[in-house]
Each structure stands twice: as C-alpha cells, then as structure tokens.
Amino acid sequence: MAPRSVACRCSLYGIAAGTLRRYTVPVTKPGAGDITGDGLIGTGFALKTLTTTGPDWLLGTASGRARGRSSGRLLSAGGGVYFGHNAEGGLLRYTDANPFDGSGADLSGSDAVDAQGWSEVALSVQPGTVG
Questions:
Q1: How buried is 76 (Cβ within 10 angstroms: 0-12 exposed, 13-18 middle, 19+ buried)?
Q2: Could you tell me the superkingdom of the organism this chain comes from (predicted)?
C-alpha cells in the first residue's frame, strides 16, 4: 500500500545563484509534481544557511556574520529557539525573546548543547517541538 499524502499548506524556500524563491508544497510527502508555484521573492541573497522560525518567517546566516564561529549549519524548531553547529563540532542553542520582531537585539545564548562531537553533515529538527 502506497503512503497516503496528507493535505497541508506549506512553503519551501531556496536560494540559487543569489535568487530567493518560494514554492508551494500542498502535501506532507510530496512528489516532484506536487511542488508548485515557483515564486521569485528577490535577488541579491548571499546567505550560507536558511531556516524557518515560523510560518513564512526565515532566518539565515551570512559568511563571517554568525556568532560562535558557525560552520554554516543553522536550524530552528520554532518558538524562538535556534541551533547552530560551530567549526569545533559543538552544537549551540540560541534563544530569541521575540522571533517575529525582525531584530536580533533580543537574541541570547550560545549555550552549548554539546561542546564537541557533532560531526553530522546534515541536521534537522521537528518544527514546534522546542519552546
């Protein structure tokens, strides 16, 4: 029996050649034909990483601008909690008091979840599981 796709209203964001685009993903387990709505958002984006902090809210890091000497891995489970993987193999946790105000002034942390030992190439989180 084939897995059943469940309807959702989700967006997928990506940057290629400096262009930020948004695609519509209408089911939880999409096939290539399910991803539609190639929407150009803008050009001139030079971000190393991109994650979402909530529906239609994005967070990214630019080369040389991330705290904690980031190796370019950044992710968020929502609720104003961000995780960054640094060059020494540590996983750091940051907290944003108001993740929807567009300001990093209320960002605190760089609390080490683990100071070293995170050698994974790709990290992921379940949205809405941390708060």
A1: buried
A2: Bacteria
What is the mean pLDDT, run by run of 10 residues, along the chain of 131 residues? 60 88 85 84 87 81 56 77 82 87 84 77 68 55
- Residue spans of the domains in the chain: they are 1-45, 47-131
Could you tell me the maximum CA-CA distance found in the chain, to the nearest angstrom? Answer: 50
DSSP the chain: -PPPP-EEEEEEEEEETTEEEEEEEEESS--GGG-EEEEEEEE---EEEEEEEETTEEEEEETTTSTT-EEEEEEEEETTEEEEEETTS-EEEEEES-TTSS-STTEEEEEEEESS----S-----TTS--
Rounded to two decimals, what is the model's pTM? 0.66
CA-to-CA distance for 75 and 60, rounded, in angstroms?
9
Residue 65's pLDDT is what? 46
Q: 56: closest CA among 99, 110, 18?
A: 99
Q: Which token pair is 73?
A: 């891995």
